[in-house]
Amino acid sequence: MRDRQPITIAVLGADTVVGRALCALLEGSGYQTTPLDAYPTGIVDELLEGADLLLLAPRLDEGVREAFLGALGKSAPQRADIPVIALTTALEEGLPEKEGVISVPWPCETKVLVQRIEATLAGESPAGALAV
Question: In sequence order, what are the residues at sequence separation of 6 or more whose Cβ sits closer than 8 angstroms to the Cβ of residue 30?
Answer without folding.
Answer: 1, 6, 7
